[in-house]
Amino acid sequence: MKALIFRFPSTALRSVCRQSPAASSLIPRLQLTQRASIVTLARPSFLPVPSLASPNPGTLLQLPASLGATGSPPTSRNVTKFSLIKGKRKTVKAVLKRFKRLEWGAWIRTHSGRQKKLFKKSGALRRRLKQHVFTNATQSWLLDKMVTSYWRRPKHYINDPYRPYHSRDEYFATQSKTFKV
């Protein structure tokens, strides 16, 4: 692929050099040769190619709309559908760390901020923060997609504190099946 070669007058180079250090990291880097300047992008995945002949010189220093106020792209926690080694789906480890799956398909979690600034909270609120919360159906469906079938299968642990919550017999869809012998 051919490099883009542009000739800059000396005044244009001086105006680029006068920019602040934070802004200069976002504009294209200039590599000077004897005859002309070669323009290369500092971060080709984040910045669009600006038109150097644009009538508005301020457009060169504007951040793209996809970048936030911090200048970094928003974080995303995506599922790896095909791993590079074996081509298999991967479990999102943050789900296993923050949630517990019950045998009847629901997921539970603790309250967020349950250990923060307890001196400000009332006794009733501190008691409620010790309790776990169910996720709704949409969240449970999403969490099921984020883990592999191994983590969706029931796990049996010795002295499991969640043992009473693994069965939900009062609701028809989650009743435990009794087998006649």
Short characterization:
Mean pLDDT is 75; it is low at 26-45. With 181 residues, the protein is α+β, with helices and mostly antiparallel strands. The chain has six helices and six strands.
Give the strand order, joined by hyphens, for the main sheet. Answer: 1-3-2
Low-confidence parts, pLDDT < 50 over ≥5 residues?
Answer: 26-45
Pairing-aware structural class of the strands and helices? alpha+beta
N/C terminus separation:
75 Å
Which bin fits the share of residues in helices?
Answer: 10-25%
What can be said about the biggest beta sheet?
3 strands, antiparallel
Write down how many β-strands occur, each being a DSSP E stretch of 2 or more residues: 6
Rough outline: flat
Strand percentage:
5-15%
Determine Rg (CA atoms, Å): 28 Å
SSE order, as H and E?
EHHEEHEEHEHH
Number of helical runs? 6
What's the pLDDT, averaged over the residues?
75
Layout of helices and strands, plus pairs?
Layout: E1 5-6, H1 10-17, H2 21-24, E2 29-32, E3 37-40, H3 93-98, E4 100-101, E5 107-110, H4 123-129, E6 132-134, H5 137-146, H6 149-152
Give your account of this protein's structure.
The protein contains six helices and six strands. The chain is flat and about 80 Å long. Mean pLDDT is 75; it is low at 26-45. With 181 residues, it is α+β, with helices and mostly antiparallel strands. Helices cover 22% and strands 10% of the residues. The strands form two sheets. A three-stranded antiparallel sheet has the order 1-3-2, with no helix packed on it. Strands 4-5-6 form a three-stranded antiparallel sheet. Strand 4 and strand 5 (107-110) form a beta hairpin. The termini are far apart.
